[in-house]
Amino acid sequence: MCGIFAYLNYNVSRERRYILEVLFNGLRRLEYRGYDSSGIALDADRTASPSDAPYAGAPPLVYRQEGKIENLVRSVYSEVDEKDVNLDAAFNVHAGIAHTRWATHGVPAPRNSHPQSSGAGDEFLVVQNGIITNYEVLKETLTRHGFTFESDTDTEVIPKLAKFVFDKSHDEEGVVTFSQVVMEVMRQLEGAYALIFKSPHYPNELIACKRGSTLILGVNELSGQQNGKAFHDVKALTTNGKPKELFFSSDLCAIVEHTKNYLALEDNEIVHIKDGSVSILKFDPHKEKPASVQRALSVLEMEVEQIKKGNYDHFMQKEIHEQPHSLTTTMRGRLKDGEVLLGGLKEHLKTIRRCRRVVFIGCGTSYNAALAARPFVEELTGIPVTMEVASDLLDRQGPIYREDTAVFVSQSGETADTLLALDYALENGALCVGITNTVGSTLSRKTHCGVHINAGCEIGVASTKAYTSQIVAMAMMALAIGSDQISTHARRNAIISGLTSLPSFVSEVLKLDAEMKELASSLIDSESLLVFGRGYNYATALEGALKVKEVALMHSEGMLAGEMKHGPLALVDENLPIIVIATRDACFSKQQSVIQQLLSRRGRLIVMCSKGDASDVCSNGSCRFIEVPGVADCLQPVINIIPLQLLAYHLTVLRGFNVDQPRNLAKSVTTQ
Length: 672
Hints:
Layout: E1 3-15, H1 16-30, E2 37-43, E3 60-66, H2 69-82, E4 90-101, E5 116-117, E6 125-132, H3 135-144, H4 157-172, H5 178-188, E7 191-198, E8 206-211, E9 216-221, E10 244-249, E11 261-264, E12 269-274, E13 277-282, E14 291-292, E15 298-299, H6 315-321, H7 323-331, E16 335-336, E17 339-340, H8 349-353, E18 357-362, H9 364-381, E19 385-389, H10 390-396, E20 404-410, H11 416-427, E21 431-436, H12 442-446, E22 449-452, H13 465-481, H14 489-509, H15 513-523, E23 528-533, H16 538-552, E24 555-560, E25 577-582, H17 588-600, E26 604-610, H18 614-617, E27 624-628, H19 636-655
Parallel strand pairs: 18-19, 18-20, 20-21, 21-22, 23-24, 23-25, 25-26, 26-27
Antiparallel strand pairs: 1-4, 1-10, 2-3, 2-4, 5-6, 6-7, 7-8, 8-12, 9-10, 9-11, 11-15, 12-13, 13-14, 16-17
Helix pairs in contact: 3-4, 4-5, 7-13, 7-14, 9-13, 9-16, 10-11, 14-19, 15-19, 16-19
Catalytic activity: D-fructose 6-phosphate + L-glutamine = D-glucosamine 6-phosphate + L-glutamate
EC number: 2.6.1.16
InterPro entries: GATase_2_dom, GFAT, GFAT_N, GlmS/AgaS_SIS, GlmS/FrlB_SIS, Ntn_hydrolases_N, SIS_dom, SIS_dom_sf
């Protein structure tokens, strides 16, 4: 749940000041992945002659700081002034690395920040995203060999292990390459990780490798773009000596302002940048030597404007208001002449139709989106649907059968629990389908088939537009699977018609923004909030409460309205705000009954209802109403969640908390 970034300029002069800003901006783009500490490493000026120096390159300058990225920026420039570091010094070739952290091992502090070092002299520096599961064993071994550990992190074993391998190889063989060192380190590591190595023993070189965590290589040929041309051999990309910039990043959003040519590393690949050339090796723990790999660059379909706030104050606010566009993009090219066309599922539709059951698997917001989709997937396909929280499925080792279709839902496609559940389902022989927002993610590569939701880059930690796009993507999936059933033909046509007009209704409900801000101001001093829903909108209740919990830091709980009498009713009084979702569907009359029971206990009710239904749900005028436009009942959750997203946003702003970077949370959860 960290962000790693690296920048290497080759055969083009760049000042140290420029290099610093590229690294800082890379971290700013990745800050949503973790923001409790950060650090960078770049080269100092050479002070010793080559014969006196302990290594071939210039000594590294390493800066680490607790807190947000801007804390690091201020401390770096302050230290640069104190130590009189020349920011105008130019480098024709230079390699720098950077990291933003979400703490897993050790409290947020400079000593636990990355880059982590091999020790005195910083002979090897490493930035990591992920987790090393056998670090304690490695730490004990290295301690016995005389290494001293300064941090509480799992990462520190990696540079120290690299130095151990380097020293041992030098003693025995005399010469060892950077890639040989990294391969031997990988051979000892267990866990899921992405790593970038920098070492003054190998000046102006970078090595990156990954197993389980996303890592991107970006290439910017300054003499002309590559336009996605294949590597005809492992060095054909860069042996031409032309000026270029190369990047490593945890996410495409950090490189889009520099280049659109990228490569997503596969598991166990090692990318070695040396003398401006890129070598890609495939590591196999059972083989002594790696195989060279030929890969092609892809062209990024993203614009810089997507990663900027524009005229909005926060990314969450922007992403809420982008939903008419994001939903349009999710459906673009997929609804045609009353049919649903999902190329990613086409070859597997017959298998899915014959399956024993559909198992939806996800975490957090993605789980809620799948829960919202469950009723209409069952209705349109006639296939039983079960729900699994990924971590709980793993804890129970719940039954997954060869005849099952397991649908994995994840915005990032990198959620650790979801990926582990995917491995479990693959081992058990199930057909695995991915629903994700991230092209090239681990989820999209490991599943047999799937649907990209195409919601666009989502930077706010609390998911908004991805949630609604996930529901729509799964609605289209249900329509595609059930397209062979004559009995549901009329229902299918009504839903497809509803999907077509959905973005315009979302635009309409966004006009409630000012009303939700006023409602938020009336709730600002409340300590708790309950949200009741049922049927299609049980998931809406869970997701609305989660949003308030995540960003406004207010206790909130989404509940199944049918369970109200079995305990929650004891909480009801005139002070506790309760939102009841009572839009028109098959459960409408039951929700009317719930409202009457809550009113009889003097409940402080806020009722979400369809336009024109206020008098039907609460005739005595003692309720506050949120009136929303009515759409097809199975699509109503897309409309109903938006006022709750706006409420959570305004509550957070009014309470003075950070909207885009909630306390203790990060966007891409890559640890268990």
